[in-house]
């Protein structure tokens, strides 16, 4: 394993060894599609692919989406592309600001250039971060994007993903590339690690270890969490829908929960005696960090295109993670 096999694949999944990517691979293989993964294992992990490697329709290569010739070679071998490789998590963005911008911008540029040459059906993963500090809830794809100052490095993530979106739409308009952008809201589920800052796996790990559950700020900030399997179903359905080409589409649940309530629910579901500890933002993050207070998607475009949206509630999602046997690290 590890080398590109000289044959064709139905789909290239960049970032396929990551949390969402590995679930995408499993879903594609279950549909009988062959899959090639390109992943540099920066935040991905080959253990995530343990259910895929025995499948004869599966192969992977370890490398970066910043490697233009490798990306071109991989895209040439594949009939379609799901581009998920990116800098992941608020902690990565703060700790590795240069890599974040480079991977997100150059990586997507390489994928789009290669896909554009061959006219490949392409999905580009974007993020609800692009809505930034907007307050016009629920967030609609054609609404304004509101960012903070460049001195606050969090916004580099939103801006780099926004550039990705502009480039994808430019390829669609100017070159006719069938590309769809998915704006993923907080996606959670088995295999997600809390190491890169994500709140739900962190809370579950803390609760199971009997450590304090760390709620940043006053805990009134809200998020909508969606179950990874449902997000993957939406991504694959969008890939199969011609009408989604040339569009950005929100993918998320509309069930909103405050982070304080999330902490309480995790504590209850795990039967933990952990204390819930409020941590001021300036202790949790470097100076000048700005959090988003609320984030809710308008999913009417998604529903109109594919007829499904992520619907599992947060209580069910926590149960699914706890019974998966893969507790967050
Ligand atoms: N958060 C928290 N405790 C943690 C990690 C995160 O209270 O240990 C908060 C964080 O400040 C944010 C929310 O949980 O308000 C979601 O954070 P995450 O990094 O999971 O996602 P994002 O901010 O990108 O939505």
Concise synopsis of the structure shown:
By secondary structure, this protein is an alpha/beta fold. The protein contains 11 helices and 13 strands. 39% of the residues lie in helices and 17% in strands.
Q: How does this structure look, described?
A:
The protein is α/β, with parallel strands linked by helices and 329 residues long. It has a domain at 11-185 and 227-252 and 297-310: NAD(P)-binding Rossmann-like Domain (Rossmann fold). The chain is built from eleven helices and 13 strands. A seven-stranded parallel β-sheet has the order 3-2-1-4-5-6-11, with helices on both faces. Strands 7-10 form a two-stranded parallel sheet. Strands 8-13 form a two-stranded parallel sheet. Helix 1 links the parallel strand 1 (9-14) and strand 2. The mean pLDDT is 95. The structure holds uridine-5'-diphosphate (UDP). Residues 90, 186, 197-199, 202, 214-216, 221, 223, 259, 291 line the site of uridine-5'-diphosphate.
């Amino acid at each position: 394993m590890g080398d590109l096999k000289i044959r064709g694949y139905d789909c290239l999944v960049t970032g396929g060894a990551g949390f969402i990517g590995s679930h995408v691979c499993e879903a594609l293989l279950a549909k009988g599609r062959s899959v090639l993964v390109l992943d540099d294992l920066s935040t991905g992990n080959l253990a995530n692919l343990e259910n895929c490697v025995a499948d004869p329709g599966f192969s992977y290569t370890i490398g970066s989406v910043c490697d233009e010739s490798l990306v071109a070679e991989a895209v040439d071998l594949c009939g379609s592309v799901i581009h998920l490789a990116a800098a992941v998590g608020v902690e990565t963005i703060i700790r590795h600001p240069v890599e974040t911008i480079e991977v997100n911008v150059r990586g997507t540029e390489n994928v789009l250039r290669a896909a554009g040459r061959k006219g490949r059906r392409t999905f580009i993963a974007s993020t609800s971060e692009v809505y930034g500090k907007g307050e016009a809830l629920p967030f609609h794809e054609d609404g304004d994007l509101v960012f903070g100052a460049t001195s606050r490095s969090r916004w580099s993530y939103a801006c780099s993903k926004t550039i990705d979106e502009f480039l994808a739409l430019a390829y669609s308009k100017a070159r006719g590339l069938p590309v769809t952008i998915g704006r993923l809201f907080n996606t959670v589920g088995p295999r997600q690690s809390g190491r890169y800052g994500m709140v739900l796996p962190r809370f579950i790990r803390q609760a199971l270890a009997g450590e304090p559950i760390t709620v940043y700020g006053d805990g009134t900030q809200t998020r909508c969490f969606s179950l990874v399997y449902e997000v993957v179903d939406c991504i694959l359905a969008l890939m199969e829908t011609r009408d989604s080409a040339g569009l950005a589409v929100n993918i998320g649940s509309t069930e909103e929960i405050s982070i304080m309530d999330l902490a309480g629910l995790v504590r209850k579901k795990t039967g933990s005696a952990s204390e819930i500890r409020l941590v001021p933002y300036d202790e949790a993050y470097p100076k000048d960090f700005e959090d988003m207070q609320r984030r809710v998607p308008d999913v009417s475009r998604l529903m109109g295109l594919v007829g499904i949206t992520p619907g599992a509630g947060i209580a069910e999602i926590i149960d699914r993670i706890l019974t998966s046997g893969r507790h967050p690290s």
